Amino acid sequence: MYIRQNIDFYRFFNLIFLKYVLTLNYIFLILHHQRRSHLFTPLVYIDKNKYFRFIAAKRESSFSFGKQNENLFTAITMSFIVNRRDWLKSGLLASTGLALGSATTAQASTTYSSLGIFDVYAEREREIVQEALLAAAPQVKARLSSNENPWGPAPTAIKAIADNAPKAFLYAGPVTAELKKTIADMHGVTTDQVMLGAGSSELLMASLLLAATKGKVMMAETCYISGRDAREDGATMKTEKVPLTKDYQYDLEAMATRVNSETSMIYVCNPNNPTGVMLPSAKLKSFCDSVSPKATVLVDEAYIDYAPNPATDSMVECVRKGQNVLILRTLSKLHGFAGLRIGYALGQPALLKDLRKFCSGGFTVSTTSAAAATASFKDKAFQDMVLKNTIESKKFLCDSLTSMGYSYLPSSANFVLFPIKMKGPMLLQKMMAEGVSVKSWFFDQQHWCRVSIGTMDEMKAFKDAFAKSVS
Questions:
Q1: Verdict on whether the full-model pTM lies above 0.85
Q2: Hey, what domains does the chain have and what are their CATH numbers?
């Protein structure tokens, strides 16, 4: 009876809440003359104490954990027919005039709605929703699916947030300017060669938008964005995908021979995600030397801080030499800023000026996050601690896999990818039933599991859960 009454209460609450959201959507429909609007999914679940919890999340399709552990977690999703892509592409873009230049809003809406590049952000938003559900699931004891840093942020960064929070009524200009100077000095470039972003995802989407208006984007198959260029709505982004080598490395020679007048950008994720494999710096620099005069080379260095020699393994030298190379970096990994959203781009001033047409140019970075980033960059002791712990946990993971008869790819990141002997979705289901979240891939006719590096206790939880799941 208690549960039934609470179900009725939440049904009533959801109806009231949905009525409010639908009213807002109706206003947007009038303003933007659209037929569909944003997807909103309220989610109710019963925790192990049989209390109801309520989560509200923006998303594109319903998602639940199903009945993997019915005694601990029951998810109920209620979705209504709406479409975030159409609203984002046609409504928000047209109403704000984002990145229009001399084009009219109508022209921009027509142009960008056919590119399909918003799917890069759409995919990430879908992942964020699933991560939120993971965080709310009472049975999750090891979250090893998102490549987060369980030791961050640094205490000095947290103090900087507290110290600067009272100043948050002011615009962040002076604080972000200090952060840009810190980044410029750290990399030996000028401040006009630095652009801030609310995480590197904002800058990546802007880069793809810029490139797609000029031609094809070349990438490896498989890499971070190789499965995100086209979705079920029929929108497409012109791409050219070059298979990885037999040892799951970028085939730079093949990529170089396929660059032509239609190629506007070459995307290289180094270390690569999801493989974790690192390109030799000399080989990648040679590639940039020969290819960058023909097309922009975008090097996504989200995981470069975990490389053997980050300073020399990075392609920042190419920017210092004036080459047509764009570097993307994030603080989400080593610095533990996944929720604070700080990223930056390094490139030539003219290229960054073009890029700014498709993003905020750093205006979306908050005072507290920028102050925390500046403090974190200066905290070398914290960074050394994270790297030391990551190495220890990764060694434990690799040793555990070897002892169970599993091989793995050499990783220069804070995760490890290895081939598995069952279908990926089945493994994920079994692992979640044991309270451990991981991620799966399928490529090269093989199912793979990617495990983020967590604390030693989390890695031990993975070992126990994996042993049970594959037995």
A1: no
A2: 2-106 (no CATH), 155-379 (3.40.640.10), 381-470 (3.90.1150.10)
